[in-house]
Amino acid sequence: MINWDAHACLPQHPQADFTPVSQLHAAGVNHVSLNVGADMNPVSQVMSVIAGYRATIAAHPERFTLISSVDDIIQAAADGRMAISFDLEGSTMLLDQPDMVALYAELGVRQILLAYNRNNSVADGCHDVPRGLTGLGHRMVEAINEAGILLDCAHSGRLCSMDVMNASSKPVIFSHANPYTLVPHGRNVNDEQIRACAATGGVVCVSGLSWFLGSSHPNADDVARHAAYIANLVGVAHAGIGLDICFQQRGLDDTPPGQFDPAYWWPASAGYSASKAPTFTPPSVWRELGAALRRTGMSEAEAEMVMGRNMMRVAQQAWAKPQPLKLMAA
């Protein structure tokens, strides 16, 4: 059994402590996707974070491994090591160049969403004016498919997410987003989006944030309730887990340089509170999640699908690169 957390955040700092990653591993997680940058982070910061994270992973080969395939994850689990990949939340670090996608793939990025809450030159954020996927955005989708990176619609505007899912030739995921029907927050996804994601063969992964779960102190049963809603709507094969735990660490300032305005990225009008930070499920929730999913009526096999097998299937498809054409002998 492989447990797969589709999204987690350490400080956006090259010296981030990986103790939380070890805590996830101790709780039963075999693979985690770590965020290495979002639209508010300049390329200099993103590259610094990637370099620092890669150095930490390389310094502890007995504990961590940076993966590029599902086979790598299976091997890491067999060896008792935590499998790690990276994800990007936005497109600004792509510098409007589709060729940048393949470069990030070489550095360990296995998952990309195109807009973080606000519009950019590629796609729409969920808290901005709807436009849809831009012409450049269509080229980025093609580049992401071609590079063998998993395409993510979390944080995207509804109209734009539908465009992305229509444009992609491979399965698309929401790495950390919950059903809007259960909690009507702009970051959550409606039934139409969930159905469209399932139609691509993709997975909607439940976030563990209090704002999006509708619980001030979220626990395994809260996560399971949202996963069960997705499973009941489109089938258990399309539900997953991406708890989006954000691990803060004293002494590390990861504030993006320049004119960074938190109220722009997380507007009060969209339901964010500057005076009340969200709470997160603890890493230990993974120990309780199987039982919580079974309490919703899922079988043990179905709970295992939600906790990892579904994301393994989708990654296997998305990470596969097209085989080069072979010239026929004359």
UniProtKB/TrEMBL annotation:
Signal peptide: none annotated. GO terms for biological process: proteolysis. One of its GO terms (molecular function) is metallodipeptidase activity. Coiled coil: none annotated. InterPro entries: Metal_Hydrolase, Pept_M19. It comes from the Bacteria. This is Membrane dipeptidase. It comes from Rugamonas rubra. The lineage of its organism: Bacteria, Pseudomonadati, Pseudomonadota, Betaproteobacteria, Burkholderiales.
